[in-house]
Structures are given as C-alpha cells and as structure tokens.
Specification:
With 122 residues, this protein is α+β, with helices and mostly antiparallel strands. Helices cover 43% and strands 16% of the residues.
Length: 122
C-alpha cells in the first residue's frame, strides 16, 4: 500500500493498460521497459501481445514481475474508458494451487461486477 510500481510490471497496471489501444500504449511507454525482476516483461511489443490476452481473458497476471515469490491477479473496473480503477489479489507462489487461482479469479470477477453494478446505481 502506498508503493508506486511501473504499470507494465503489475497486474493492476496491466489490467488498466489493457483498456487502452495498442497505439496509446506505444505512445505512453518506451520501447524498453525497466526490469524489476528477471521475470519482468521489458519489451513493449511483448507487453502489447500480453495485453491482447488480458483483453480476451478479462484479467491480468503478474508472474513475479515486481516481487519474487508473489503472483498477482488483477481486473480493471471498466465503468470508464479507458479504465482508471482496478482490483487485485497477491498470493505467495508457494501457496498457489490451480484451485486457489480459480477461486481468486472468480472473486475478482465478482468484485468487478458488483462494483460496476454499484456505479450504475449512483
């Protein structure tokens, strides 16, 4: 909490970046992105490829890209375009099972849907 990290290395950031067009992402980010760990995607075009997958599946994953030993899942809250808000959940890799991963993704989708419903009521 209160920590600032590059968008390309976090699930929150990637979820938000996925709501921009490829051209907007190219304008915002340099060709070479800083590495925080050996897992960080540092090539802008590879990141854009990942953003395509995120758009399709509806969630982003940080695979130890900013903190070794942690995997993080995130979803954008698209009540604006591009989205300005997202939610995420980080889990120690050592405790992550496929079933736990699915539970986290389901909870994030549920949170996204409930937040979208709440914004419609305002």
């Amino acid at each position: 909490m209160g920590r600032r990290l590059p968008a390309h290395s976090t699930s929150l950031g990637k979820a938000l970046l996925s709501t921009y067009t490829d051209e907007q992402v190219r304008t915002m980010l340099p060709e070479t992105l800083p590495a925080l760990t050996e897992h960080t995607v540092t090539d802008r075009e590879k990141l854009i490829e990942e953003l395509h997958r995120i758009r399709e599946q509806g969630y982003a994953v940080d695979r130890e890209e900013n903190t070794l030993g942690l995997r993080c899942f995130g979803v954008a809250i698209p009540y604006r375009t591009p989205a300005r808000d997202a939610v995420s959940c980080s889990i120690p890799v050592a405790r992550l099972t496929p079933a736990h991963e699915q539970t986290v993704k389901d909870a994030l989708f549920d949170a996204r849907d409930r937040l979208m419903l709440a914004t419609r009521r305002l």
